[in-house]
Amino acid sequence: MPPVFQSRVGIPCRVGDDGRMRTVAEHQDAVRALLAPLAHRGTVDVVAVNAAALAGSRDVDRVLAADVASPIDHPPFDNSQMDGYAVRSVEAVPGRVFAVAARIAAGDPVCTLEPGTAAPIMTGAAVPVGADAIVPIEASIPDSFPPEEGEHTVEFSAPAIPGAFVRPRGSDLEGGRMLLPAGTRLGAAQWGVLAASGIREVRVRRRLKVLVLSTGDELRGAGDELESGQIYDANSATMAIGVTECGATVADVRTVTDDAAALSAYLASHGRSADLILTTGGVSKGAYEVVRDVFEPAGVSFSSVAMQPGGPQGLGLATLTDDAGVQFERPVVAFPGNPVSALVSFEMFLRPVLRELDGLAPRRASSLAYLAEPLVSPGGKHQVRRGRFDAAGAVELVGGPSSHLLHGYATSTLLVHVPLGVSHLDAGAPVETWSID
Ligand code: AMP
Ligand code: MG
């Protein structure tokens, strides 16, 4: 006889078709395995290394698709690290008087230093041929540059060491060597070194494209008048924005009705446009389960995961047919419709995988914290509650466990995990929390 988990509040949990519910870890693994082929998505995008175009653009946050070699030495020529005097170090002993040569500014072409002279040189300026050291202006007598007109002399208070304050050509990286390897996430420093190399465009990994479908006859969009029994669609926003936060793009975001023929028609015309189809609603065992009705015959499995909220889950590779009658396959991840169920499902199952596929840190920051109040949980399920830290640093719960409490979620900063097998926790008990603020 299959086990029936008895929760503390006395509601027996439903047992899956195979005799038991999937654990959260098993479903996480199944989602990871289903989406693993998306790591090898073929084509790449080409993005211009252009600060003005990149500023404020989503292209800032991309991942290199191919190794990039440096076309130039970094730095490209020996240059001064200080404002000071370029000298021949063998000549620069304390007490020796030098004739001051012409000034060398950053951007001036390389010149030659005559023996017995010291050239005022600015930071970043090319070290003249013949010079092998820079004496900082602070170690010079006088310790400020003379006017450009007239003839002047300078002495130094300390000997110059060969190579002192010279930034040698290629000392950061020699030309031809690896500048950044494939898989590098591009941020300010990485875009900077590409720009500093004079590179005009880079090949980056194509973003994953996700089709976000919210199902339900009751759903209306902002701007619509709500009639009796209708609600505004929350999941299109939570899922589309969640997907975007994972580095993916939304191929289309749509509210569809509970009409299976209409959903099939939509998939025939739009299903190919995405790498992944993400749906909410219509996965339970009610009378109008459009997602289940359309995708189960297409090969997607619907099962119960031992998690609260977010028990009913659909997952699998769907074989669909396009408008031309040609079959194609797409992975489908189907979450339940209650907004908190959909969000918790997204956090537990999809967010880590999508982020990993985009080269982003997959996990939320987690910490062990102490409950400010007792809680009950269905012992046969992993419960995910919403909470925040109180003034004493303990975890207070925001709202109850119900999966319609989206405002409670939106005003929480923590997900609070109550593991499988735990049906009651006292105030002061340690819990794992994930930071979601
Ligand atoms: P379902 O999973 O389709 O049975 O929906 C479960 C509950 O979630 C119902 O109360 C729905 O009205 C609600 N719901 C489903 N989809 C959405 C959505 N996109 N936005 C807000 N609530 C939803
Ligand atoms: Mg529904």
From TrEMBL:
Its cofactor is Mg(2+). SMART domains: MoCF_biosynth. Residues 211-356 form the MoaB/Mog domain. It is an enzyme of class 2 (transferase). PANTHER family: GEPHYRIN, MOLYBDOPTERIN BIOSYNTHESIS PROTEIN. Belongs to the MoeA family. Catalyzes the insertion of molybdate into adenylated molybdopterin with the concomitant release of AMP. This is Molybdopterin molybdenumtransferase. It comes from Marisediminicola antarctica.
